[in-house]
Amino acid sequence: MDPVIVVGAGIAGISCARALAEAGVAVQVLDRAGQPGGRMDSPQHAGRPVDTGASYFTVSDDRFDRVVRDWQRRGLARPWSDTFEVYEHGATRRTAGPSRWAADAGLRALVQDLADTAGLSVERAGVELVARAGSGLTVDGRPASAVLLAMPDPQARAILQPALAAERAGLYARFDPVLVLSAGWPERVWRRFDGMFVNGDERLSWIADDGSRRGDGAPVLVAHSTTSWAASRLTTQDEDDATQLATQDEDDAAQALLQALQDVLDIDTAPSWTRLDRWPHAKPAAGRAASFQLWPSLVGACGDGWSERPRVEAAFLSGLLLGQAVARRLGRPGS
Questions:
Q1: DSSP string, 201-243
Q2: Res. 248: pLDDT tops 70
Q3: Which pTM does this prediction carry?
Q4: Most buried among 4, 138, 177, 205, by the most CB within 10 A?
């Protein structure tokens, strides 16, 4: 039997591949980055990983809780904070919520651990075409018994052959962009906080103290733009992939976010370094009732967009449930 091919190595894709592997199904994971992470990536900035995509995760489902408790036991994840601040009209207030979890080595390390403990490897491949081939499927010409797309709808739709019309039509969700500024100072020049929601600012929506989040006390802040402000600066290549920020505008965007960050936190000294990251499909604009989709063609889709409440846990569960459903469809023992 041809392997199942999972396209996308974020937490949904790796969770999906784990479920298949545990059921004895041959599986290959492809990702253009060639490593686990996806929107939980933690790129190296100034010699340390910085969480520029997902900011944290919460736990409410027993299936995810078991995984998180194992991470905690092995020192990979820890509770970060249950109290954030809200900035609005020049004033801040504290707001309590669920326990938010973080990882000292960056959130990508958790996705990597899911892959490692299941014996999964990720092949670097920028997939261009998922197509019908007789009664089966191919991914850039390689045969597959099923193709599971663990990525935002616009990216998944873009690689599907037009003949897969029902599948393309089902990938209708809109994803919103975010621009992320990471900035480091020689020392902390702001009052202590963990995370801060920013309301009423055209540019800024969220600030995380990455030193607090990572537990190393590094003087690093991460600021997320509003989706509307990011969308106004990204130029659309085509209907499926709005990914570009003009090079000449990158410095202007970084400076605008930095100024907003400094205004909110009353910082009057310049950082020693900054970095702007683009997340053109950062988060679903709305949720769904379904946890995943599996079409009769055995093309499937999973991710945080397949949930009524998009979040890291939802992505994990979406991948898990899709992997289990495909294993059952293929009649594998242990599924």
A1: -SSEEEEEEHHHHHTS--SEEEEEEPHHHHHTTPBPSBTTB--
A2: no
A3: 0.95
A4: 4
